[in-house]
Design a protein that fits this description.
Elements lengths: L2 E5 L3 H12 L3 E6 L10 E5 L5 H8 L4 E4 L8 H19 L2 E6 L22 H14 L5 E5 L2 E3 L6 H12 L3 E3 L9 E3 H12 L8 E3 L8 H12 L6 E3 L2 H10 L1 H6 L4 H4 L7 H7 L6 H16 L1
Parallel strand pairs: 1-2, 1-4, 2-3, 4-5, 5-6, 6-10, 7-9, 8-11
Helix pairs in contact: 1-6, 2-3, 3-4, 5-7, 7-12
Length: 305
């Protein structure tokens, strides 16, 4: 039986572990708390991924090590380097293939669609952290690839949009979003992200390069929210944009909101992710937006009961 280790139990990590287990793989899901989905094929393990010897022991015999970890958003410069180094060293020691979940930060601002051959050109602290992680992985002895997603949609997904907008829409109250409401924006579904990671891990040509998750939608925030409300049979959304000045003020009291300031170019300008190569080579396609939003609505209603 194929054996994989997944580090991190956020939305993508949980989806990835379930998909692998459903496909007959034995999975160890590693988090600090030992959390994760209840599944007969998933062994939940409480461990610190920066403890290299412990993680190495957990990964002995694993075919693939998947990095779906996510430090606190306001602690990336301090917390990502030891965490990334621990997983990369473990992959080198064990010979496990190493699949990283990434984002678009390392590219910096890009005019037009972003393709996988776009070079790293970060202009932010967090972008520089992600670029360094990828450079270190490429320079290592491990067999590596990175799957890059845009902002996440889907049930239980910790994205800014998912945390702010859908709960407000279903409650019939106003919501304020930190970005422009009417510019095109690529959205990544967590299940599509997990399927892209698996497809890359199982493809001989996937290594040593990045891949983009096919977008479930490129609707602007306002149009996306109108569609969400339509499917939920909710009132017309009351959606406003948080101004830069207001975001600065909010950031004085909230360290997470403060971290959004340097990334505002991703939400204020069109953001289009080109995944043509991923679809052609890895055979992954996007889940229809209606399916993604319906699942999100159903999950929020379960939580609200």
């Amino acid at each position: 039986m194929t054996f994989s280790v997944v580090v991190g139990a956020g939305g993508t990590g949980r989806a990835l572990a379930r998909l692998l287990a459903d496909d007959g793989e034995r999975v160890k899901l590693v988090t600090r708390s030992g959390s994760g989905p209840d599944h007969p094929g998933i062994e939940r393990v409480a461990a610190d991924a920066t403890a290299v010897d412990q993680l190495t022991s957990l990964c002995e015999g694993a075919t693939t090590l998947y990095n779906c970890a996510m430090p606190s958003y306001d602690r990336w410069p301090s917390d990502w380097p030891p965490l990334a180094a621990g997983m990369l060293t473990t992959a080198e020691r064990t010979g496990a293939d190493y699949v990283m979940l990434g984002n678009l930060y390392a590219y910096g601002p890009v005019a037009g669609p972003i393709t996988e051959n776009q070079p790293s050109a970060p202009t932010t602290v967090k972008g520089s952290v992600r670029a360094r992680m990828w450079d270190d992985a490429l320079a290592s002895d491990a067999r590596v690839t990175e799957i890059r997603a845009s902002d996440f949609l889907g049930p239980d997904t910790m994205s800014v949009y998912n945390l702010i907008v859908p709960p407000a829409v279903l409650a019939g109250v106003a919501a304020a979003y930190p970005g422009e409401l009417d510019v095109e924006h690529s959205w990544s579904y967590v299940e599509d992200t997990a399927r892209t990671m698996i497809a890359a891990a199982r493809h001989d040509d996937a290594w040593g390069r990045a891949w983009h998750v096919p977008s479930t939608s490129t609707l602007p925030v306002r149009a996306l929210t109108v569609e969400l409300a339509r499917l939920a049979e909710a009132p017309t959304p009351q959606l406003t944009s948080i101004s830069p000045a207001e975001l600065e003020r909010l950031g004085q009291d909230d360290p997470i909101m403060a971290e959004l300031i340097e990334m505002q170019y991703l939400d204020n300008d069109p953001l289009l992710l080109d995944a043509t190569h991923t679809s052609a080579v890895l055979g992954v396609s996007a889940t229809p937006l209606e399916t993604v939003l319906t699942q999100t609505i159903e999950r929020l209603r379960v939580i609200a009961r």
